[in-house]
Design a protein that fits this description.
The protein is α+β, with helices and mostly antiparallel strands and 181 residues long. It has five helices and five strands, in the order ααββαββααβ. Helix content is 39%, strand content 17%. The strands form two sheets. The protein has a three-stranded antiparallel beta sheet with strand order 2-1-5. A two-stranded antiparallel ribbon has the order 3-4. The longest helix is centred in the last third of the chain and has 22 residues, at 113-134.
Length: 181
C-alpha cells in the first residue's frame, strides 16, 4: 500500500520537475524580496498547504484539525496585496488548467489579531477543502506523503493533527511555534 503511494508520488514529482515553470523558495532573510516584488506589482505565489513556517493556525478541515501558516493573510493585511486562491487541475488529456478564484476579501470584525488570522485562514481553508472534495486524486498522495515526512521529522508541522503526537507538539493556542525548518 505505501510502496505504491511512494511510487505515485515519485512519478508526480518527476512530472512537476519537467514543467516549464520556475519555483523559488524564500527564507526569512529574503522576505525583503517578497515585499519588493509586491511593490513592483509582481505576483508572489505562496503554497497555502505548504509545510514551511514557524507559526501555525489550527482550523477545522474535513472534520479534523489542520494547520496552516498565517503568512499569506498577514502579508495581505500588512501590504494590502490581494489574495487570489489558485488551483491547478489536471485535465483528462494530461494538460493542466489554472483556476483563479475571485479576489479574497479579508474580513476584520475587530477581533484580536489571533481571531482575525484564525477567521480568515478558516475561510481560505474552506475554499481549499471544496477543491479537494471535487478533485481528491490531486491531493490524497500529497497528504499521505506529508504525514510520513512529519512522522520522520522532516517537516516542521504535520498537515493534520496527529493522534500520536506528544502533547507538547500540539498547538495550545491559535499559534504554535514550529520545530525544524
Amino acid at each position: 500500500h505505501r510502496q505504491i503511494h511512494q511510487r505515485i508520488f515519485e512519478m508526480m514529482e518527476q512530472e512537476y520537475n519537467s514543467l516549464p515553470v520556475t519555483f523559488f523558495r524564500s527564507d526569512k532573510k529574503s522576505m525583503s524580496s517578497v515585499i519588493r516584488a509586491l511593490k513592483n506589482n509582481e505576483l508572489v505565489a505562496v503554497a497555502f498547504d505548504g509545510r514551511e513556517g514557524n507559526k501555525w493556525v489550527p482550523v477545522k478541515f474535513f472534520g479534523q484539525t489542520a494547520f496552516f501558516a498565517p503568512g499569506p493573510v498577514r502579508l495581505s493585511r500588512t501590504t494590502g496585496a490581494t489574495i487570489l486562491h489558485t488551483f491547478i487541475i489536471r485535465q483528462r488529456d494530461n494538460t493542466h488548467k489554472l483556476v483563479i478564484e475571485r479576489p479574497f476579501e479579508l474580513k476584520d470584525d475587530g477581533a484580536t489579531n489571533e481571531g482575525f488570522l484564525s477567521a480568515n485562514i478558516q475561510r481560505l481553508a474552506e475554499i481549499f477543502e471544496d477543491y479537494i472534495a471535487r478533485y481528491p486524486c490531486h491531493f490524497g498522495v500529497i497528504f499521505q506523503r506529508t504525514r510520513e515526512r512529519a512522522e520522520k521529522g522532516s517537516v516542521s508541522m504535520p498537515f493534520f493533527q496527529m493522534e500520536s503526537a506528544a502533547p507538547d507538539s500540539r498547538p495550545t493556542s491559535s499559534h504554535q511555534e514550529g520545530g525544524k525548518q
